[in-house]
Amino acid sequence: MQFRDIVDRYQEDGFAIVRGVFDAEALGTIDSALDVVVHEIAPKMPKGEVYYEEADTQSIKSMFRMEDHGEAFLSLLRHPVLLGLARAVFDDPAMDLGTVMYFGKAARSGSLTPPHQDNFYQCFEPPEAMRITIAMDASTADNGPLTCQRGTHLLGVLPHRPSDVLGFSQVLDQVPDPTRYPDVEICLEPGDICIHATNTVHHSGPNRTDHPRRQLAVECSSTRVRQNQSLLAERREAVARLHRKHQ
Ligand SMILES: O=C(O)CCC(=O)C(=O)O
Q: In 10 A of CB 135, how many CB atoms?
């Protein structure tokens, strides 16, 4: 696969879509592994690794460190297209893919994700990091697609405040002017992927349909990146406070 056009799009917009990276067979393998995690492993996961919808406590909103829960997820960190694309984006042949997450939006009860930048949580310097979203289901205008504000990856990390939403604990103080930085709904078919930069402002709406909208996200950063440890400690304390409040 040629990555040049995708990298150009990503650098200009802060996100880019690649269609049809996973075929039905590959998605089927991941789907079966996901089923095991949702039904057998998640109920035993510690707080902070799995979050449930508040309005429907059976439905998983997000899960982290999926690579610890089966080869289907671990192998995503070696996937030639995902790895090749990441290395092309950051021009860094030595970099690896970091971790795999899950973002569910259950039929009808899947709730919104407030506007934020991933880097507010991650504290990456320089901001050479991104998430690779893998669509397990179609994401459509009605089921809460990932929505990125074009061009916001160049704005630096903007002020956030507590959102009171478990799993997405921070919300942007002020959303960048949408006339200058328009919202783009990332509508995907199963097997499509989207990359978005760690500083790209994004959010997603609730799922208003009778079908789930599930996606995986692979996080990665270049070998030049360091995490600002004092900022990270501050951000982790804010999450811990939210957990204590919701105990
Ligand atoms: O649409 C969602 O579920 C939120 C995903 C998200 O915030 C991310 O992939 O960084």
A: 26
For the entire predicted model, the pTM comes to 0.95
Largest CA distance in the chain: 49
Mutation pick for ligand 1 pocket among 113, 121, 198 (CB with most ligand atoms within 8 Å): 113
Domain membership of residue 228 as a residue range: 4-245
Tell me the β-bridge partners of 195.
16, 132
pLDDT in tens, 68-117: 999 999 999 999 999 999 999 999 999 999 999 999 999 998 999 999 99
Name all residues whose Cβ lies below 6 A of ligand 1: 103, 113, 118, 131, 133, 146, 202, 204, 217
Please count the structural domains in the chain.
Answer: 1
CB atoms within 10 A of CB 2: 7
Q: Which atom of ligand 1 is nearest to the CA of 144?
A: 1
Q: What is the CATH number of the domain that holds 71?
A: 2.60.120.620
